[in-house]
Design a protein that fits this description.
The chain has about 325 residues and is α/β, with parallel strands linked by helices. About 45% of the residues lie in helices and about 20% in strands. It is built from eleven helices and eleven strands. The strands form two sheets. Strands 3-2-1-4-5-10-11 form a seven-stranded mixed β-sheet, sandwiched between helices. α3 (about 80-95) packs across α4 (about 105-120), α5 packs across α6 (about 180-185) and α7 (about 200-215) packs across α8. The protein starts with a strand and ends with a helix.
């Protein structure tokens, strides 16, 4: 059981709701009489001793904000044993007995290394817009990002219709097509291209030409960046169909913005559970959701397994798209 101090950090790509999760960690720990430190700028801040005690006031006026007040940064030095030892020494210097890490697979993998090498208790929270952390149905920020993508696609549909264009919308997702699949289904896209599902561009183009011949005014193609380049796809589609084709790369706009109600509430629930678990002596777990309920996942199982794209989404897309 921890009675002294814990710390919280965010790492990897930022996602809406990270602030809500960190806020819940801080206020829950303080409610339980345990000090809380914030590690600023991820593992880089850990190695640079950018570690500061937090109060309840430190996390006020945050729940509605996107990004992360703690910051995040890449750190090559942390990938070395010597770098991780330096980070552990800094945690020990502040009397930190356990650590909550909010981030994606890479960030949680870093936490598993700290646990193995230094024995410090680690509790992870899945924070990534890709919704690709194994063992959980939900990751912090995925709902806001999907809603941002849907809103953009809705707007692009208007201009595509006005000009009878093909509009290709590239969304984030290097190895996971969850964001493309869900936003594509929700926005009524005609085609969705993701890394997990094979596609035939010749068949797609033939289908588009035929649909335009029968009066279609526009076509929306949603593509995950890991499946192919939106710009490259645009060039191929325009060449094969001879129809005016444009591409819109949503990019980092998907990471920003005020988090949705779902991201605020679920992130808060996860943050509270993480703090309580860490204080009570639980370690090497990731908290996530399964069918609407908070569940714990073994940290090492989470980082050593790849989450597949939900086959039900793939099936639904094959019916509706």
């Amino acid at each position: 059981m921890i009675t002294g101090a814990i710390a919280v950090m965010t790492s990897g790509g930022d996602s809406p709701g990270m602030n809500a999760a960190a806020r819940a960690v801080v206020r829950t720990a303080l409610y339980e009489g345990v000090k809380v430190f914030g590690i600023y700028n991820g593992y880089k801040g850990m190695l640079e001793d950018d570690i500061h005690e937090l109060t309840s006031r430190s996390v006020s006026d945050l729940i509605q904000r996107g990004g992360t007040f703690l910051g995040t940064a890449r750190c090559m030095e942390f990938k070395t044993v010597e770098g991780r030892r330096k980070g552990l020494d800094n945690l020990e210097k502040h009397g930190i007995e356990g650590l909550v890490i909010i981030g994606g697979d890479g960030s949680l993998t870093g936490g598993s290394m700290l646990s193995k090498e230094g024995g410090i208790p680690i509790v992870g929270l899945p924070g990534t817009i890709d919704n690709d952390v194994w063992g959980t149905d939900y990751t912090i920020g995925c709902d806001t990002a999907a809603n941002t993508a849907v809103d953009a696609i809705n707007k692009l549909r208007d201009t595509a219709s006005a000009h009878r264009r093909i509009m290709i919308v590239e969304v984030m997702g290097h190895t996971s097509g969850w964001l493309a699949m869900t936003s594509g289904i929700a926005s009524g896209a005609e085609y969705i291209i993701v890394p997990e599902v094979k596609y035939n561009i010749d068949e797609i183009c033939e289908d588009i030409v035929e649909s335009y011949a029968h009066g279609r005014r526009y076509t929306i193609i949603v593509v995950a960046e890991g499946a192919c380049s939106g710009v490259g796809l645009k060039n191929v589609v325009q060449e094969k169909t001879k129809i005016d084709t444009r591409v819109s790369i949503l990019g980092h706009i998907q990471r920003g913005g005020s988090p949705t109600l779902e991201d605020r509430i679920k992130a808060s629930m996860l943050g509270e559970r993480a703090a309580l678990a860490l204080i009570s002596g639980v370690n090497d777990v990731v908290f996530g959701f399964d069918e609407g309920k908070v569940v714990s996942i073994n940290l090492f199982d989470s980082v050593n397994n790849k989450k597949p794209l939900d086959p039900e989404l793939v099936r639904l897309a094959s019916v509706l798209v």
